[in-house]
């Protein structure tokens, strides 16, 4: 497979904080590559360095075979970028903003087709300030596609959107991939990474701690399922670890997650233990392990507090 | 070039759709002129006080003074040259007609004879209404006298008046002030764009920053020219404020003034984090300039210890040159000095702006 983005040993510090601490990865042609991590993990910084709008302290970034540091304009002409928050020209209409951005590039896609793609046909003459949050987000995706780019960069594209809008945007991104483009996306939504991405890099404190297909990441770290519940009194990890079938225990803010390869056995053993020691188990439920669990296992923290 | 044009049009659309900007740029200065004009200007003359000096005792000269005396629009005063010229300077005469010694003799010999007309160019009514009337009277007289070949020639002599009307003094100053405000406030949208990450988004496209800045500057120059034209036209139509000087010089100072204050605006925006901090900064800069640059009243009226401040402000020099060009007021400085000071401010602001302006 051909890599459209090659990042090697990227570093970037702000004062004492190592925002990006020796990151290397590849994004291949025609894939959706996700960078998953909590806020402040270094996702946006990494992405902006690759886009050529931020300078790295060291390391090398090649996009479509071009060194970003040396030829940023050449790279920018061939990529599409959506930033985390952009409120664009409130007094221009959707179509006017699209035409304006199209004029920045040597070649542009059909504006009317793009407007149709992002479902803004009824709003083409609407001023940007009158667009809803979901419409603005769709417009910014359309703007990122205005030069018919080979690689699309989306920085938390569904952040703050309702589920309906989120699904719309996922469909658009999948459509873009079906046209053979590569997509590099950052997110702190587990569902998004799991559902949308072909490959995910989990990032924390400026370092990539795991990269693989979402399913593989989960199966690699968990053969077991997760049992979650709340307790009305403190119990040590070692006590829970002693319960039959339990392989791992994570306790956080009164919320307990135990991982078990034999769920029925573990659940009945837990209930016995509760009766024996006189505490209560509430909100108990069993689920399959997710990327969240992978993150939890690797970092000891949840992505969203 | 395509990008540049589309950016320019986008600039224009955004500007026109912002009601507040339209008001401050075009309506506000006109408002100022109308209000000040109404306060300062008296009623218009229906008859013109015209002085007549006859230094020739020939019959022809006597006849001509009779002919002039019959013009109903003239309130004619016969007098000595010195007295009449003084009256003109004091504003008691709108024009002085001088029939020179030897006038009758020249005509008798069939040679050209001169009549001198002195008037104050700052009062446009003099040149627009008076001169044609005088011309007509003398033409008629001439034709009656000689039959065919005209023998009398009118020499127009303008006289520098140091007695400008308040509105004449004010209008070029308001023009300068309007250009200053245009330049300083032109950066506000850029700071807003920076705050909203629009500049950052543009940075992710191949658009060159130079193209972006050039289009903004060119757009503001166009607005400046429209604004200036509007001010000059309204002042002319409503208050008869003249534009006496060279249009080319006027345009030159309008462009230089706008560029200087644009550079100053960019410089301020470089030191302002966001719009909330930019606005007070602009106010701090523009208010002293408005009141200490001789825009509303001549600098001689200000206390002496303020002089160094006034002498430092670019608006003083822009106002001075615009006033000299438009109404031929007495110069504070020569155009060369005004150019140099404005140019100096432009360069200094530009360097600071380029050095400190942040795109994010």
Class based on secondary structure composition and strand pairing of chain A:
alpha/beta
Give the rounded overall mean pLDDT of chain A.
91
CATH class of the largest domain in chain A: Alpha Beta
Tally of helical runs of chain B: 15
CATH topology of the largest domain in chain A: Rossmann fold
Query: What is the helix fraction of residues of chain B, given as a range?
Result: 55-70%
Arithmetic mean pLDDT of chain B: 84
Portion in beta strands of chain A: 25-35%
Span between termini of chain A: 37 Å
Strand content of chain B: 5-15%
* Major sheet attributes of chain B: 5 strands, mixed
**How many domain modules of chain B?**
2
- Largest sheet strand order of chain A: 6-7-8-3-9-10
Q: Rg of chain A to the nearest angstrom?
A: 23 Å
Distance between the termini of chain B: 26 Å
Instruction: Find the count of extended strands of chain A (DSSP E, 2+ residues).
Output: 14
* Spatial ordering of strands, largest sheet of chain B: 2-1-3-4-5
Description of the structure:
- The complex is a heterodimer of chains A (305) and B (360).
- The longest helix of chain A is centred in the middle third of the chain and has 16 residues, at 163-178.
- In chain A, β12 (246-252) and β13 (255-260) form a beta hairpin.
- Chain A is α/β, with parallel strands linked by helices.
- Chain A is built from eleven helices and 14 strands.
- In chain A, α8 (214-221) crosses α11.
- Chain A has helices at 43-51, 72-78, 94-102, 111-117, 133-144, 163-178, 190-196, 214-221, 237-241, 263-277, 291-299; strands spanning 3-14, 17-28, 32-36, 58-63, 66-67, 79-82, 151-155, 182-187, 199-204, 207-212, 225-231, 246-252, 255-260, 281-288.
- The model of chain A has no long low-confidence stretch (mean pLDDT 91).
- Chain B is of the alpha/beta class.
- Chain B folds into two domains: 2-40 and 165-356, no CATH class; 48-158, abc type-2 transporter like domain (abc type-2 transporter like fold).
- Chain B is built from 15 helices and five strands.
- Chain B has helices at residues 2-16, 19-40, 59-69, 81-89, 103-108, 124-146, 166-185, 188-195, 198-203, 209-239, 247-271, 275-292, 307-312, 314-327, 335-356; strands at residues 48-54, 74-78, 95-99, 113-119, 152-158.
- In chain B, α3 (59-69) links the parallel β1 (48-54) and β2 (74-78).
- Chain B starts with a helix and ends with a helix.
- Classes of the chains: A alpha/beta (305), B alpha/beta (360).
């Amino acid at each position: 497979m051909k890599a459209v983005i090659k990042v090697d040993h990227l570093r970037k510090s702000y004062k004492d904080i190592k925002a990006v601490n020796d990151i290397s990865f590849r994004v291949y042609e025609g894939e959706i590559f996700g960078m998953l991590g909590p806020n402040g993990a270094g996702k946006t910084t990494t992405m902006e360095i690759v886009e050529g709008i931020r300078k790295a302290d060291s390391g090398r970034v090649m996009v479509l075979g071009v060194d970003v540091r040396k030829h940023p304009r050449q790279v920018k002409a061939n990529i599409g970028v959506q930033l985390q928050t952009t409120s664009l020209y409130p007094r221009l209409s959707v179509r006017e903003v699209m035409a304006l951005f199209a004029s920045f590039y040597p070649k542009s896609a059909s504006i009317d087709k793009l407007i149709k793609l992002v479902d803004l046909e009824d709003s083409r003459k609407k001023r940007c300030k009158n667009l809803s949050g979901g419409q603005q987000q769709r417009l910014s995706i359309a703007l990122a596609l205005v030069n018919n780019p080979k690689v699309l960069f989306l920085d938390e594209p569904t952040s703050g959107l309702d589920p309906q809008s989120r699904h719309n945007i996922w469909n658009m991104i999948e459509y873009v991939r079906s046209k053979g483009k590569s997509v590099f996306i950052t997110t702190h939504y587990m569902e998004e990474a799991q559902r949308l991405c072909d490959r995910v890099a989990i990032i924390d404190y400026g370092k990539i701690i795991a990269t693989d297909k979402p399913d593989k990441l989960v199966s690699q770290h968990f053969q077991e399922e997760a049992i979650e519940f709340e307790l009305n009194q403190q119990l040590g990890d070692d006590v829970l670890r002693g319960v039959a079938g339990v392989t791992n225990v994570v306790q956080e803010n009164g919320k307990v997650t135990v991982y078990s390869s034999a769920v029925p056995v573990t659940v009945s053993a837990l209930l016995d233990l509760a009766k024996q020691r006189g505490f209560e188990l509430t909100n108990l439920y069993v689920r399959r392990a997710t990327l969240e669990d992978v993150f939890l296992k690797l970092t000891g923290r949840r992505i969203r507090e | 070039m395509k990008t540049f044009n589309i950016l320019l049009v986008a600039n224009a659309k955004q500007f026109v759709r912002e009601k507040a900007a339209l008001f401050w740029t075009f309506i506000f200065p006109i408002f100022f002129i109308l209000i000040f004009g109404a306060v300062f200007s008296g009623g218009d003359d229906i008859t013109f006080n015209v002085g007549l000096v006859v230094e020739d005792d020939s019959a022809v000269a006597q006849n001509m003074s009779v002919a002039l005396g019959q013009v109903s629009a003239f309130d004619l005063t016969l007098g000595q040259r010195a007295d009449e010229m003084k009256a003109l300077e004091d504003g008691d005469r709108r024009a002085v007609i001088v029939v020179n010694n030897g006038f009758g003799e020249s005509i008798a010999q069939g040679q050209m004879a001169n009549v001198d007309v002195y008037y104050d160019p700052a009062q446009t009514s003099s040149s627009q209404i008076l001169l044609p009337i005088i011309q007509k009277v003398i033409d008629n007289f001439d034709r009656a006298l000689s039959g065919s070949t005209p023998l009398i020639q009118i020499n127009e002599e303008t006289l520098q008046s140091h007695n400008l009307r308040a509105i004449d003094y004010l209008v070029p100053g308001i023009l300068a002030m309007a250009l200053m405000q245009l330049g300083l406030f032109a950066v506000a949208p850029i700071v807003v764009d920076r705050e909203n990450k629009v500049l950052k988004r543009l940075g992710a496209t191949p658009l060159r920053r130079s193209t972006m800045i050039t289009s903004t500057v060119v757009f503001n120059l166009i607005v400046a020219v429209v604004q200036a034209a509007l001010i000059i036209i309204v002042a002319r139509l409503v208050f008869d404020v003249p534009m006496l000087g060279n249009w080319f010089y006027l345009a030159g100072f309008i462009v230089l003034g706008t560029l200087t204050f644009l550079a100053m605006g960019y410089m301020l925006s470089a030191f302002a984090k966001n719009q909330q901090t930019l606005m007070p900064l602009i106010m701090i800069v523009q208010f002293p300039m408005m009141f200490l640059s001789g825009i509303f009243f001549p600098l001689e009226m200000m206390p002496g210890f303020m002089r160094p401040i006034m002498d430092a402000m670019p608006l003083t020099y822009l106002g001075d040159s615009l006033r000299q060009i438009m109404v031929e007021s007495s110069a504070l400085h020569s155009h060369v000095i005004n150019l140099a000071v404005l140019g100096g401010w432009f360069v200094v602001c530009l360097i600071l702006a380029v050095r400190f302006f942040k795109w994010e």
